[in-house]
TrEMBL record:
Cited InterPro entries: TBL (IPR029962), TBL_C (IPR026057), TBL_N (IPR025846)
Keyword field contains Transmembrane helix: yes
Domain Trichome birefringence-like C-terminal: 113-402
Positions of the Trichome birefringence-like N-terminal domain: 58-111
Protein's name in the database: Protein trichome birefringence-like 12 isoform X1
Sorted UniProt keywords: Membrane, Signal-anchor, Transmembrane, Transmembrane helix
Membrane topology: Single-pass membrane protein
Family: Belongs to the PC-esterase family. TBL subfamily.
One Pfam family cited in the UniProt record for this chain: PC-Esterase
Subcellular location: Membrane
């Protein structure tokens, strides 16, 4: 190729050597290929969504749907687990449809949820302890934990030290998991009236609740645990404390005036207990507050012949009818209590364990009439509050274990 360049009035013609042209073209092609390869590698490094993977936070494990899969792996434990509580051992009590109940799998929206690996969990929790504090629904939760973790350490033994109601020690990993029964969280005690006084107004006595004093069952043990799960709610109703035996609230040793109704009392107790936890429980302790486990009484409350003999989970469009407080149904307590808890904890360093929504669907998974004793239903009515084990609490374990391990990794 000839090119001309002018210098003043002189024009000089130059020629690009053929050899130079032939060597430059492959280099340009190679450079282009390298740039294309680099760009492709950048694209490959982007995360790929998969329903089979457990997504890291902020994956919302609490929102999703139940999917029926008859090929779902069997539960990790059976009726022979030594940590069972009789009334919840639905396999031993021959509850119907247990295979169907445990064929439903919780699938979070937009991410996956793996079943807990008990060995992996205990290895990562080696030399650490997990504590539950609250009412019998936390005990229900605990029993599921103990039976599942025992798969990794069959030498586990019962543990009831430090005022624990029940628990287990897993010697292979030096891990303790235990439950401290404290239904109101605050200290409360029965103060009876004399017979003469009771006959005058029908009040047999009062339950004095010191709203600013944690119950003895857990006040001195929080430093022992590396993970704590609190709850309270099922005892905050007039079915537990009727007008003949009411709750009366005290603060700084004196009755609160004007007197509080039961939900006002719960709100004040919650404020004081959360303040105590924030102040006294070590900052390094991982703290959760489990929201309400919903009840599924149909046709009446537990003491009004209420029943839960349902064969499948509720549909999404049925949930508000069952649980919205505006409908004033017998199961309205869960959402009402939850709102009080959420309002109190929204600025606190206590994580919400919101298992309510996923559990609202499972009207089919309670012990109901299969309670292990012939006269239990006649005395107590159907159990539409606690859960069959194995059952729904096993999914709670999957979720909580994932959250615990995720937080351990980020410490």
């Amino acid at each position: 190729m000839n090119e001309s360049m002018e210098f003043g009035s002189r024009r000089i013609y130059t020629t690009m050597p053929t050899k130079l042209r032939s060597s430059l073209l492959p280099r340009l092609l190679l450079l282009s290929l390298l740039l294309l390869l680099f760009y492709s590698l950048l694209l490959l490094r982007r995360p790929i969504a998969s329903s089979n993977l457990v997504s890291p936070p902020p994956c919302d494990l609490f929102s999703g749907r139940w999917v029926f899969n008859p090929e779902t792996p069997k539960p990790l434990y059976d009726e022979t687990c030594p940590f069972h509580r009789n009334a919840w051992n639905c396999l031993r009590n021959k509850r119907e449809n247990m295979d169907v109940i445990n064929s439903w799998r919780w699938v979070p929206n937009g991410c996956g949820l793996s079943r807990i690996d008990p060995t992996r969990f205990l290895k990562m929790m080696r030399n650490k302890n997990v504590g539950f504090v609250g009412d019998s629904l936390n005990e229900n939760f605990l029993v599921s934990w103990l039976c599942i973790l025992r798969v990794a350490d069959p030498s586990a033994v019962k543990w009831k030290k430090k005022k624990a109601w029940r628990g287990a020690y897993f010697p292979k990993f030096n891990v303790t998991v235990a439950y401290h029964r404290s239904v109101l969280l605050s200290k409360y005690q029965w103060q009876p009236k004399s017979s003469a006084e009771a006959n005058q107004d029908g009040v047999k006595g009062i339950y004095r609740v010191d709203v600013d004093v944690p119950a003895n069952e857990w006040i001195n043990v929080t430093s022992f645990y590396d993970v704590l799960i609190f709850n309270s709610g099922h005892w905050w109703g007039y079915d537990k404390f009727p007008k003949e035996t009411p709750l009366v609230f005290y603060r700084k040793g004196k009755p609160i005036n004007p007197p509080l109704d039961i939900l006002q009392g719960f709100e004040v107790v919650l404020q004081h207990m959360v303040s105590y936890i924030q102040r006294e429980v070590p900052e390094k302790t991982l703290k959760f507050w489990r929201l309400q486990s919903p009840r599924h009484f149909y046709g009446g409350d537990w003491n009004q012949n209420g029943s839960c003999l349902l064969e499948k989970p509720l549909e999404e469009n049925q949930l508000d009818l069952w649980f919205d407080p505006r409908n004033n149904g017998v199961n309205k307590e869960a959402r009402r209590i939850n709102q009080i808890i959420k309002n109190e904890l929204q600025t606190k360093k206590i994580k919400l364990l919101d298992l309510t929504h996923l559990s609202e669907f499972r009207a089919d998974a309670h012990p109901a009439i299969w309670l292990g004793k012939q006269d239990a239903v006649a005395i107590w009515g159907q159990d539409c509050m606690h859960w069959c084990l194995p059952g729904v609490p096993d999914t709670w374990v999957d979720i909580l274990s994932e959250l615990i391990l995720t937080n351990l990794k980020t410490e």
